[in-house]
Amino acid sequence: MDPKVSVIVPVYNVEQLLPRCLDSIVAQTLHEIEIICVNDGSPDRSIDILNRYAAQDARICVISQENRGLGGARNRGFEAARGEYVLYVDSDDWIDPDYCRALYEAAREADADVACASILKTRPSHSKWTIHYEARQEARTPDDRFRIAHCPPDFYVMNKLMRRDVLLQLGLRFRERVCYEDVEYMMRLLGECGTLVTVPGVVYHYMFNASSITKSRQTPKKQRDKYEAHLHFVAYADRIGLHLAPKYRSVTRRLFEWCGLTLLKQKECDGVRTWRLFDFLPVWRSRCR
Fold first, then answer.
1. CB 3.0-4.6 Å disulfide test: which of 39, 72, 185, 205 passes with 64?
2. Cβ contacts of residue 136 below 8 Å, gap of 6+?
3. Which stretches within the chain are classed as H helix?
4. How far apart are alpha carbons 42 and 22 in whole angstroms?
5. How far apart are CA 163 and CA 217, in angstroms?
6. Along the 289 residues of the chain, how does pLDDT read in single tens digits?
7. Residue 214 confidence (pLDDT)
8. What whole-number distance in Å separates Cα of residue 137 and Cα of residue 148?
9. DSSP labels for 15-45?
10. pLDDT tens for residues 166-186?
């Protein structure tokens, strides 16, 4: 029989944190899962750890590929998935023991395409809630789905159990070799899926890693990727009639930096571009063409 849930784990250079992630998945109270680990050309000993776990648990499938980035690794795992629902877990994070069962049962009970869990972000010094659901809620319209999923500003894919058939019908794939690949994926899913349900009581533990791709120092490419993803989201929101607060309609691009200090920023909102010196003093405005 096909598994109830396919858990997809993209792996790159995480040998110190990978065992905790895998232990949390192997220990799930929902046993009918498959665990697809995609070794994305990791240069460390992650592949040895994956192979050791796979030898001990037949539910684990290890796929190795040349480096394609987080989006490419997730796409490769999805291609191999057979489960009724799909769950992405980043390899430096971990999940509660009842995580898969609670999300799966809530999705089945509500006939939902998406089930969302809380996210607890952990830093070396403290932890705090990024998203915290204290009650079950159901959403059936795009406005309600985006609002309940805290999107924007949070375009997280990791805390969501998603019906695989819906992902296939929508043709959803992550953009590869870019940062902020979750934005376009989540906007399409929340804009076009059916019912979304929230699931209190279980937590996705998000490990804040300062050396990760998105949390490390901004580069021109990362800034460009973020700008383009945000621009696409605003255009999509307008196309489906989704209401956005002004702060989420404003798309920012850094133009000049010096020693980590932003000297000039361009903000684009509703067809008007504003250049701001030190991000607070408007120096020029023009219409977008």
1. 39
2. 106, 197, 198, 199, 200
3. 18-26, 46-56, 69-80, 99-110, 142-148, 164-170, 182-192, 220-240, 246-249
4. 16
5. 35
6. 789 999 999 999 999 999 999 999 999 999 999 999 999 999 999 999 999 999 999 999 999 999 999 999 999 999 999 999 999 999 999 999 999 999 999 999 999 999 999 999 998 888 999 999 999 999 999 999 999 999 999 999 999 999 999 999 999 999 998 899 999 999 999 999 999 999 999 999 999 865 544 444 557 788 888 888 888 999 999 999 999 988 888 777 665 555 556 666 666 766 667 656 666 666 656 776 5
7. 43
8. 8
9. TTTHHHHHHHHHT-S---EEEEEEEES-SSS
10. 999 999 999 998 899 999 999
- Cα separation, 28 vs 104, whole angstroms: 12
Residues in contact with 234: Cβ distance below 8 Å, sequence separation at least 6, in sequence order: 244, 248, 249, 251
Q: Which two tokens stand for residue 213?
A: 């791709």
**Cα distance between residue 122 and residue 164, in whole Å:** 29
> What's the token pair of residue 117?
């869990």
What CA–CA distance (Å, rounded) separates 283 from 265? 10
CB neighbours of 95 closer than 8 A, spacing ≥ 6?
Answer: 24, 25, 28, 89, 202, 203, 204, 205
Cα within 13 Å of Cα(252), Cβ side: 15
Structure tokens that stand for 152 in this block: 């924007």
Angle between helix 182-192 and 220-240 (nearest 10): 10
CA distance 23 to 84: 23
**φ/ψ bin of 159: left (φ > 0), alpha (ψ from -120 to 50), beta (otherwise):** alpha
